[in-house]
Automatic annotation (TrEMBL):
Role played: Involved in the degradation process of misfolded endoplasmic reticulum (ER) luminal proteins. Participates in the transfer of misfolded proteins from the ER to the cytosol, where they are destroyed by the proteasome in a ubiquitin-dependent manner. Probably acts by serving as a linker between DERL1, which mediates the retrotranslocation of misfolded proteins into the cytosol, and the ATPase complex VCP, which mediates the translocation and ubiquitination.
Pfam family, one: Selenoprotein_S
Top-level taxonomic group: Eukaryota
PANTHER family: SELENOPROTEIN S
GO cellular component, one term: endoplasmic reticulum membrane
Family in the record: Belongs to the selenoprotein S family.
Residue ranges with Gly residues bias: 124-138
Keyword Ribosomal protein in record: no
Encoding gene per record: SELS
InterPro entries assigned: Selenoprotein_S
Membrane topology classification: Single-pass membrane protein
Cellular compartment(s): Cytoplasm; Endoplasmic reticulum membrane
Disordered: annotated segments: 79-145
Protein name (database record): Selenoprotein S
Originating species: Macaca mulatta (Rhesus macaque)
Amino acid sequence: IVFSCILLYVVFQKLSARLRALRQRQLERAAASVEPDVVVKRQEALAAARLKMQEELNAQVEKHKEKLKLLEEEKRRQKIEMWDSMQEGKSYKGNAKKPQEEDSPGPSTSSVVVKRKSDRKPLRGGGYNPLSGEGGGSCSWRPGR
């Protein structure tokens, strides 16, 4: 048994030395296989991809700025219209909403029924307090008295 253990130890040492040498050779081959031309080409391709992505981002930013500018122009135009109609003594809220309704291809205004807020009932009574414990249920908190 002792002899077999010594034999296994020697074989293990020889195999580990060979594995280390094999790994070292593979690392040297990998380092030698990396040519400067390949590295330069890879870096150029990476730089070109970054430049392309930056240009796309800049184009998106320009489109977004144009949209914001158009929205601001539309808001300014509506404010001017509201001011003009208010100066004439007309209802400025109704006039401000008319251009938007004309632009939208929605259903006709005669078929749409609009509910007023006064028709709605409140969901809870005016004296409702969730901390008072009046809601029923198995557990409730009551303030200390």
